[in-house]
């Protein structure tokens, strides 16, 4: 199912120019993880993990959106915790959400406890949530100078079908051209450096929809669905390498899904310099953690 | 690409004043050095108190060092924990005169309200609405830009102790990492310029530099029952200052011997650093940005003035506020030999050890190493149940984590996240704080650790000496008659006029025979030889009272009978956050067999506390619940927290007494007479338990615990995605305690609920083992029924639990105690004359 999702994503979102990055991957990335067990108490401390097993630039370039989905959530978390925020992105990024290996994308608690409890504690019939899920965590446009982000919506039909798109001839929806194709810009969010809800040792870049209604171009519907009175979505991202970010999406402070963001032009332009120096501009607080051995170039 | 998303339940110019140190620190008479302007009154205090260089260094750290927790109190608490602090509401300069009454915090004598005579700042625009304080002439220039040099960088260390394992070269971490900033106007609360501050954006939001009105203005909630929001939760907005707290924020207090004439305008000579602020509403400060109908307000804002639940942030889900300890005559506090203590100890090398988990040398230093070992030590027992038991230095060290230092580097990742209900995910439960990791990764930790001996010296200094009623009264007389004397005989005579002939002598006799077994540190008391005890005896070696008036040994909660929730505090247990600060000896204590809740891991006990200067420290008990309720009666009624939480209840229904039947509160009065009156009223309640009106902190409205988002589309609220349950303020006609919420083990409940459907047999065995056959069976049956009721309609949980309140109030509660001023009934059988005698004698201690 996950593979199918990304194959489709590549076809729909990136067209022929971006598919390479999202091509099928058969193997998980060959990077080191600290041992862990099932229970929360059996998970390694991120500080010790990074001290002993820092992610070198060459490790980071082994990571792709596809092979992330071949890892389980703990491994994805171990990667995320060893990343720093990097620069606040600027420009258009492609992206998608992914579900890790071993998860069905469904109710995690019920899986842990034995499964079969779908619907017990969660109303699974939230069509609006599903629709929001289909449109967020995809392509985004970062306006770094304004500390603003908008989501690129390629297909409005689902949202329209649910009647959650306010249309006004006097106030047409904003659009953008990506690879020659028109996309709509919805769901504006604020961008800032802030706390990671997973790993507090350094800041992440936060994409916050709480006060979306104060942003230029806000359109009550559907934008409010992501806001403080809607699903209260707050994303956090850290840089895997220049042009590639790993994200975590939360709804009302509960983790819901992982996602990736990619800008091929940036990735290719800065790759050599990053590989050589192992460092890049950091816009956010990077913490004070020491590592046992410095990454290449440092 | 259709995919269903499912939610896991988831502040003159900057100048250095060259002061001859002989005027300030006696031990360095011939030396001169630069003293930062804002430190001048601190050195004057050191001279007044007679502190040596080390003690004075420790005092300055205690009063000012935040050790980097400005990030905690500005970003971490708000964004990661989700609790909002409205610092402007607490610190706004136009309410400086009301600050003590509202928040119990103490105004910094060196600060002023801009625009008032002699205040260097002429307008609150210059200070962003806050007080102007020494150092702000420089600090304010760095608001919105980088490059601020913290005043702590000018801190001059006391000489390294002779024989220090890490000497003789001074290898201490840079003092800059102590992070002093400048005062906010409230002692112990410090500010730092925010380099990310955007002046234009701030003016746009607040329409003025002097106001934070747009930042903290409530934003209408969408839908009935929802709490109002505000931009305090908007992480994109950077306030002008980062706010940090020093240990002094709770421990700095008015000197019982020399209280201020006006508590809102104290002078430096009215300030002491160790006796503990018995008026502070630190809990309310921490939730000052939250509406009262939020879970967070209800969980935090239930401590009495002078008390705080230090396990509310590193939550153990046991509602247990405790008083800020009065640190008196620490040099006489009992220690306990032969305790099994695993801890890091200074070493000169790690030769022979390659395991950094057991031995670590700080890179770039010469022989600055630490080695971890289990040894038999002589240790103090600190905290209410003696949970800090690996040494006095480490106990002080841990205070810095209570105030938020090194939170990001060392401990936020180790806390339990109330929203994480998946036992396989981080945050479901606590993980132990790792001292070695924190030392390595947090420079602020090292800055404090390298100076802990100075802080301990301050604890042992003259500033912690007793504040006897006799001296207080003599001081009081000298304000009008400088040569006045008030002798011990005068005190006794006055007490006997008040309490009866020979009352003091008779009281001593009663105390020796009935109280000293717990409340004396003299070896004769431990041996049962009470008759010859002299409770006022002076140690000729140092002039301190010999008797600490408490043996500091643990007594079971059921024996003392006081509100037991604090005794069940669990953060020191193995696998829990502060594991490394508890000794093996502590954890080996047997549980209190008479307490129904789990008492493993050394829990279930209270230390026998010191009664030194009892006259100045009422109300009593670990939670300040015994005696009149304290109230500030601020002019701004929105900050009248006492009015929000009346505590007296009907003994049987546990419902609040009507307003006209609520006993009057005792208005904050730090004067000598005020403390003495409060002491007498509290002693009366102590010795007459049958006359105590029961006190319970109740929920004052239904509170909904919601985990997972909900959706409001402007017309109808969609069904919840996640789960929610409502703790009603009344169940079966009885009031529900606020503790019910904090004590509800919702994670265990949810996990059991799921297991009732997926692994009933295994769950049954577990429930029977936990609750016994009858209750276990009943719980299983109800869990199965609830699971069935919930299929497809998660909101049904509210009704399901309303029908089975015992699940919340008993089975899944970490502490079921309700009455907060019960217990310690010792002395109730004494005659009225003897009770008076005891009150008279205790006033002399």
Q: Overall pLDDT of chain A, averaged?
A: 81
Total beta strand runs of chain B: 20
Give start-end ranges of low-pLDDT stretches of chain B: 1-32
Mean pLDDT of chain B: 91
* Biggest sheet: strand arrangement of chain A: 1-2-3-5-6-7-8-9
- Most extensive interface, residues per chain? A-B, 83 and 84 residues
Structural class of chain B: alpha+beta
Strand content of chain B: 5-15%
List unreliable stretches of 5+ residues of chain A: 1-19, 104-125, 293-298
What's the end-to-end separation of chain B, in Å?
A: 78 Å
- Strand segment count of chain A: 9
**Multimerization status:** heterodimer
Helical content of chain B, roughly? 25-40%
Strand content of chain A: 15-25%
Helix count from the secondary structure assignment of chain A? 10
Main sheet properties of chain A: 8 strands, antiparallel, barrel
Question: Which key features would you list for this structure?
Answer:
heterodimer, A: 298 residues, eight-stranded antiparallel beta barrel, disordered N terminus, disordered C terminus, B: alpha+beta, three-stranded antiparallel sheet, 31 helices, 20 strands, globular, metal-binding (chain B), Cytochrome c domain-containing protein (chain B), iron (chain B)
Please describe what this structure looks like.
- The complex is a heterodimer of chains A (298) and B (845).
- With 298 residues, chain A is α+β, with helices and mostly antiparallel strands.
- Chain A has a domain at 83-113 and 122-277.
- Helix content of chain A is 27%, strand content 22%.
- Chain A is built from 10 helices and 9 strands.
- Chain A has helices at residues 2-18, 46-52, 57-60, 65-68, 73-81, 108-113, 127-135, 157-161, 220-223, 264-277; strands at 91-98, 140-143, 148-153, 175-178, 181-194, 204-208, 233-241, 244-251, 254-262.
- In chain A, strands 1-2-3-5-6-7-8-9 form an 8-stranded antiparallel beta barrel.
- Chain A is globular, with a radius of gyration of 19 Å.
- The N and C termini of chain A lie far apart (41 Å).
- The longest helix of chain B has 18 residues, at 773-790.
- Chain B is of the alpha+beta class and 845 residues long.
- In chain B, strand 11 and strand 12 (369-379) form a beta hairpin.
- In chain B, strands 3-4-5 form a 3-stranded antiparallel sheet. A 3-stranded antiparallel sheet of chain B has the order 10-12-11.
- Mean pLDDT of chain B is 91; it is low at 1-32.
- Among the domains of chain B are: 64-157 and 173-318, no CATH class; 703-736 and 745-811, no CATH class.
- Chain B starts with 15 loop residues before the first strand and ends with a helix.
- The chains are: A alpha+beta (298), B alpha+beta (845).
- At the A-B interface, helix 1, helix 2, helix 6, helix 7 and strand 5 of A face helix 3, helix 13, helix 14 and helix 26 of B.
